[in-house]
């Protein structure tokens, strides 16, 4: 009887694991589902980059570029778009490794390489003088780009930005991707419930995490090549480059969710100390992605700063 019970449990576990196996979804299939009416694609050094470039009379207006965070896509800025494009030319892209852009040919996802990607992307679009905003990983890339090109950035917005020595625990998806053995499994077994759990961690108000939101993040994760790219990015060593913040002279706005479980709100003060007289706004009703969770409120502060 004990052997039968043990065998039953073993079989149940095998079935449970088997049900979580997910094959890559072809890029064209994900693209057909999630590209936007204003989606564009451009070749940047052999990489087909998904981006949007919108705004009324955009050639005559100031430009703002929006950079998303880890495992996100340019869709994260949808709540900001109606208000921003009335006054600005708004450019956003899916970073290499994520969204509809997918993996980079060289599989190099260091911050230095992301900065080089922005240089090549901006050159391909023929833009130089810009405002720049980034969230989480996108914030790190944004301020590193600003430090490298201080004369090209008019204003900088950092939203729950990465880039300073980590405080607190590394998020579960990144911990799993870094573990020997599990990193290989992670490329094939991708439970939807883990995506749901992660979204509930980055949102303060979990009631805003609906099925459509989970499905988009989950499907983007399964886009062919993105899971391997996530593992490759997770394996990149943390970079202690905070000293470069001293090179930034652009007016800077720091936005942060009080309930950020991935990058604690205390980091807002650490950024404030290293930057030249930044403005800081802490939201009592947001987590790690306030531009997505409370778009109207966070956009209002961004527009006041930009204007």
Summed up, what is this model?
By secondary structure, the chain is α/β, with parallel strands linked by helices. It contains 13 helices and eight strands. The longest helix is centred in the first third of the chain and has 18 residues, at 2-19.
Protein described:
With 307 residues, the chain is of the alpha/beta class. The chain has one domain: Rossmann fold. Helix content is 41%, strand content 16%. The protein is built from 13 helices and 8 strands. It has an 8-stranded mixed sheet with strand order 1-2-4-3-5-6-7-8, with helices on both faces. Helix 4 crosses helix 5 (137-148). It starts with a helix and ends with a helix.
Low-confidence stretches: 6-20
CATH class: Alpha Beta
Mean pLDDT: 90
State the end-to-end distance: 74 Å
Treating each run of at least 4 consecutive H or I residues as one helix, how many helices?
13
The succession of helices and strands, N to C, reads HHEEEHEHEHEHHHHHEHEHH
| Helix proportion | 40-55%
Q: How large is the share of residues in beta strands? A: 15-25%
Corresponding CATH architecture: 3-Layer(aba) Sandwich
Radius of gyration: 20 Å
Q: Work out the count of structural domains.
A: 1
Query: Main β-sheet, in a few words?
Result: 8 strands, mixed
Inertia-based shape: globular
CATH fold type:
Rossmann fold
Structural class, by secondary structure, is: alpha/beta
Q: Kindly state the number of beta strands.
A: 8
CATH-assigned homologous superfamily = Alpha/Beta hydrolase fold, catalytic domain
Strand order within the widest sheet? 1-2-4-3-5-6-7-8
């Amino acid at each position: 009887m004990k052997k039968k019970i043990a065998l039953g449990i073993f079989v149940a576990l095998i079935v449970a694991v088997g049900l979580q196996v997910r094959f890559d979804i072809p890029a064209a299939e994900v693209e057909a589902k999630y590209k936007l009416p204003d989606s564009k694609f451009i070749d940047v050094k052999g990489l087909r980059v998904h981006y949007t470039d919108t705004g009324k009379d955009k050639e005559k207006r100031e430009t703002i570029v929006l950079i998303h965070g880890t495992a996100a896509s340019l869709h994260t800025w949808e709540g900001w778009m109606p208000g921003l494009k009335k006054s600005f030319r708004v450019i956003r892209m899916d970073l290499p490794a994520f969204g509809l852009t997918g993996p980079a040919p060289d599989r190099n996802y260091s911050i230095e390489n992301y900065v080089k990607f922005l240089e090549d992307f901006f050159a391909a679009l023929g833009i130089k003088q810009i405002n720049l905003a980034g969230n989480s990983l996108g914030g790190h890339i944004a301020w590193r780009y600003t430090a490298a090109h201080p004369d090209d950035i008019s204003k900088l917005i950092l939203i729950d930005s990465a880039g300073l020595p980590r405080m607190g625990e590394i998020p579960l998806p990144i911990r799993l991707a870094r573990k020997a053995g599990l990193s290989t499994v992670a490329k094939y077994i991708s439970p939807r419930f883990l995506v749901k759990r992660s979204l509930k961690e980055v949102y303060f108000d979990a009631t805003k995490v609906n099925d459509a939101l989970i499905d988009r993040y989950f499907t983007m994760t399964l886009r062919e090549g993105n899971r391997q790219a996530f593992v490759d990015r997770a394996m990149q060593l943390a970079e202690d480059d905070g000293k470069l913040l001293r090179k930034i002279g652009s007016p800077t706005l720091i936005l942060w969710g009080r309930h950020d479980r991935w990058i604690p709100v205390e980091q807002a003060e650490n950024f404030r100390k290293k930057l030249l007289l930044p403005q800081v706004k802490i939201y009592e009703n947001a987590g790690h992605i306030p531009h997505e969770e409370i778009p109207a409120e966070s956009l209002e502060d961004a527009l006041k700063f930009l204007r």
